[in-house]
């Protein structure tokens, strides 16, 4: 498989929205190139720590976690692409993607998972949303039970977005035992 | 009595049953889906739905640099008259998203949002409490 697979219309997701581009799977790993040139992301297969699939509205999202803690989200895979990419990743990179599910129930209560520098809010064992702690400028404890995450915001934030997230807070009731006495609270 | 009924209804409130029921992605901005009684928030590259019944208050603010802000506060246990109080028994140990704040480039869009979230919330809460009353 020297020439690998090419996927058009794969967007790279991030805090400031999404960037359209093209992804190539080849014997050495993954390359994603921004449409019209410019930014490229190369992930060497030996740097892949974990890969996930998630079905999102109308399409599929491939999450790639790399050694240095970065986590890329590539969106735009058709249902029929999923088995091909999975097979490729297994055979060429020796990694099997895990399946994640998206919560769309609209609930605001669940669990918080910390994994590397990703904070995931889980509702009923499904992912409601994910936050990269690299985007968080400050965390604060308010009172005994609330944790505030402030996001980096400057004049360049939100060039591609109308509304930019500035702050979220979590309420951790006393009945929660997960983070009791844990210095690494979210 | 009342408590049990409201817990039953509020735990059953679901914004979307199916992933593909979410509205097609538009600009990166807060959206209100009247039909599904949901507010969609752009959080780190995804549109995250929340049922409007779980929102407690929404407010907007403008600073001297003409930046516009919107703040959405959700129901959490322990606040007075929170419909979650019964829920929190059922989901003991859960962590709650309490608040989300956004800066916006469009003050008009923000004031429309605040209005439509408030109106939708009022309708849903009224309907749910009526339903709870009938159930008792």
Can you put this structure into words, describing what you see?
The complex is a heterodimer of chains A (186) and B (136). By secondary structure, chain A is mainly β. Chain A has 2 domains: 5-100, PH-domain like; 111-171, Roll (PH-domain like). In chain A, 7% of the residues lie in helices and 54% in strands. Chain B has 136 residues and is α+β, with helices and mostly antiparallel strands. In chain B, strands 1-2-3 form a 3-stranded antiparallel β-sheet, covered by helices on one side. A 3-stranded antiparallel β-sheet of chain B has the order 4-5-6, with helices on one face. The chains are: A mainly beta (186), B alpha+beta (136). At the A-B interface, strand 9, strand 11 and strand 14 of A face strand 2, strand 3, strand 5, helix 2 and strand 6 of B.
Task: Give a summary of the structure in a few sentences.
The complex is a heterodimer of chains A (186) and B (136). Chain A is mainly beta and 186 residues long. Helices cover 7% and strands 54% of the residues of chain A.
Topology:
The complex is a heterodimer of chains A (186) and B (136).
Chain A: E1 5-14, E2 17-26, E3 29-34, E4 40-44, E5 48-56, E6 59-66, E7 71-77, H1 81-93, E8 98-100, E9 109-115, E10 118-123, E11 126-132, E12 136-142, E13 146-151, E14 163-171
Parallel strand pairs in A: 5-8
Antiparallel strand pairs in A: 1-2, 1-7, 2-3, 3-4, 5-6, 6-7, 9-10, 10-11, 12-13, 13-14
Chain B: H1 2-12, E1 31-33, E2 38-43, E3 46-51, E4 55-62, E5 68-74, H2 84-90, E6 95-104, H3 107-135
Antiparallel strand pairs in B: 1-2, 2-3, 4-5, 5-6
Helix pairs in contact in B: 1-2, 1-3
Secondary-structure element pattern of chain A, one letter each = EEEEEEEHEEEEEEE
Q: What share of residues of chain A is helical?
A: under 10%
DSSP strand (E) fraction of chain B? Answer: 25-35%
Number of helices of chain A: 1
The total number of structural domains of chain B is 1
The name of the CATH superfamily of chain B reads FACT complex subunit Spt16p/Cdc68p
Please work out how many helical segments of chain B DSSP would assign.
3
CATH classification, class level of the largest domain in chain A: Mainly Beta
Helical percentage of chain B: 25-40%
- The CATH homologous superfamily of the largest domain in chain A is termed Pleckstrin-homology domain (PH domain)/Phosphotyrosine-binding domain (PTB)
Number of strands of chain A: 14
CATH topology (fold) name of chain B:
PH-domain like
Mean pLDDT of chain B: 85
Element order of chain B: H for helix, E for strand: HEEEEEHEH
State the domain count of chain A. Answer: 2
Radius of gyration of chain A: 18 Å
| Quaternary form | heterodimer
What is the 3D form of chain A? globular
CATH topology of the largest domain in chain A: PH-domain like
Output the strand order for the largest sheet of chain B. Answer: 1-2-3
End-to-end distance of chain B, in Å?
6 Å
């Amino acid at each position: 498989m020297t020439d690998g697979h090419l996927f058009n219309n794969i967007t790279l997701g991030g805090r400031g929205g999404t960037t359209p581009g093209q992804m190539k799977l080849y014997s050495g790993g993954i390359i994603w190139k921004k449409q019209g040139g410019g930014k490229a992301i190369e992930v060497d297969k030996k740097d892949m720590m974990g890969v996930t699939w998630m079905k999102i509205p109308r399409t599929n999202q491939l999450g790639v976690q790399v050694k240095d803690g970065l986590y890329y989200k590539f969106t735009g895979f058709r249902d029929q692409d999923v088995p091909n990419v999975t097979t490729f990743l297994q055979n060429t990179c020796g990694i099997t993607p895990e399946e994640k599910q998206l919560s769309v129930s609209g609930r605001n209560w669940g669990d918080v998972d910390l994994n590397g520098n990703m904070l995931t809010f889980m509702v009923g064992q499904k992912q409601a949303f994910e936050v990269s702690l690299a985007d968080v400028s400050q965390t604060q404890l308010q009172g005994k039970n609330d944790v505030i995450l402030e996001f980096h915001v400057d004049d360049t934030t939100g060039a591609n977005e109308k509304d930019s997230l500035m702050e979220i807070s979590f309420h951790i009731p006393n009945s929660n035992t997960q983070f009791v006495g844990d210095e690494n609270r979210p | 009595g009342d408590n049990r009924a409201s817990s039953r209804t509020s735990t059953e409130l679901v914004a979307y049953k199916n992933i593909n029921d979410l509205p097609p992605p538009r600009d990166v901005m807060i959206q209100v889906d009247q039909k599904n009684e949901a507010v969609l928030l752009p959080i780190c590259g995804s549109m995250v739905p929340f049922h409007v019944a779980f929102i407690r208050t929404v407010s907007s603010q403008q600073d001297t640099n003409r930046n516009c802000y919107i703040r959405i506060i959700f129901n959490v246990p322990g606040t007075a008259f929170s419909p979650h109080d019964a829920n929190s028994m059922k989901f003991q140990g859960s962590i709650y998203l309490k608040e989300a704040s956004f800066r916006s480039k469009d003050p008009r869009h923000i004031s429309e949002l605040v209005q439509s979230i408030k109106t939708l919330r009022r309708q849903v809460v009224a309907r749910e409490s009526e339903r709870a009353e009938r159930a008792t």
